[in-house]
Design a protein that fits this description.
Layout lengths: L3 H12 L2 H8 L30 E6 L5 E9 L6 H16 L3 E7 L2 H7 L3 E3 L7 E3 L2 E3 L10 H6 L1 H10 L6 H12 L4 H15 L4 H12 L6 H25 L6 H9 L3 H11 L15
Parallel strand pairs: 2-3, 3-6
Antiparallel strand pairs: 1-2, 4-5
Helix pairs in contact: 6-7, 6-8, 7-9, 8-9, 10-12
């Protein structure tokens, strides 16, 4: 139950909104007097479902016992709507997990990186209520790795270098170094980072260079083993999506149902279960069609 003191503390400002400015003016924070006041709804519940997803979310635990969440967002160009979304993500994650979040934005051109690195401030100029300071990786601070031996010592960093510098004049040299480095690791590791590189390059001209390097130097990506691993990756990802949706909707998943979902290797069946997970009231509703 809300106490009377709680009620009074905020009702004062309903009765006299100007009290806010007068109070803080006495503390040398020159908020102006309001010229118009609108009483807004206090219920912040979102009436209709609104899907919000970050690109990658990781929990990082350290040896000292401290933990933080790493929110990774890839940004291809300036977007005036993104600062509000990034602020929502970090505030929501802190409220949900009570673990400090860090926002990391990756960019492929310096102009976007400079824009993304600007602190996001919420609140009037007299008092910034919230400030979000993203960390940004882009061509300006990610090294251009053109030496194969250097790339081999840190394949993930070399992959990030290749993606980040995909528009650079020396992109070909960076990609050749990465291709050579991938020959020094096992097939599965090489496959993962080769595919990440291709995804990251997207439609850039350097993507054609990368595909050519892969067809010449890493023919094992066309092997039966590679194709099987790709298929397993797709089914695993879809099963994880189904379980995530059920979890977000507060639907309990018994162990036998969880095992049935994760053990399924048929993409079409998983696609059907994925659609049903959005409207299901129980986990068993996924299997209402006996043909599944």
């Amino acid at each position: 139950m809300v106490s009377s003191s709680h009620e009074a503390m905020h009702r004062i400002f309903q009765e006299d909104p100007g009290a806010f400015a007068r109070t803080f003016r006495a503390l040398d924070l020159p908020f102006p007097d309001p010229v118009a006041v609108s009483l807004m709804p206090t219920d912040l519940t979102e009436i209709k479902p609104l899907e919000r997803r970050v690109d990658t979310l990781l929990r990082l635990d350290t040896a000292s016992g401290e933990s933080h969440l790493l929110v990774v967002e890839a940004q291809g160009k300036k977007d005036p709507d993104k600062p509000a979304s990034w602020t929502y993500y970090t505030a929501h994650l802190y409220a949900k997990y009570r673990i400090p979040p860090v926002l990391l934005i990756t960019c492929q051109d310096e102009a976007t990186a400079t824009w993304a690195a600007e602190p996001i401030t919420i609140g009037p100029r007299q008092w910034r209520t919230l400030t979000l300071r993203p960390l940004v990786l882009g061509p300006h601070n990610v090294p251009a790795i053109t030496d194969p031996s250097t790339a081999a010592r840190d394949i993930p960093l070399a992959t990030l270098s290749a993606i980040t510098h995909g528009k650079d004049d020396n992109a070909a040299a960076i990609l050749k170094a990465l291709a050579a480095a991938l020959k020094t690791v096992d097939e599965e590791t090489a496959r993962i980072f080769a595919e990440l590189t291709e995804l990251g390059l997207g439609t850039m001209p350097s993507a054609k260079i990368w595909r050519h390097l892969m067809s010449v130097d890493l023919s094992f990506f066309r092997s039966e083993t590679s194709q099987r691993l790709r298929a397993e990756g797709r089914t695993k990802g879809r099963a994880e999506d189904i379980l995530l949706i059920l979890d977000e909707r507060g639907i309990g998943v018994p162990d036998d149902v969880r095992a049935r979902i994760t053990d399924c290797i048929d993409l079409e069946i998983l696609r059907t279960w994925l659609r049903r997970s959005v409207t299901a009231t129980t986990a068993g509703d996924l299997f209402t069609d006996t043909s599944d």
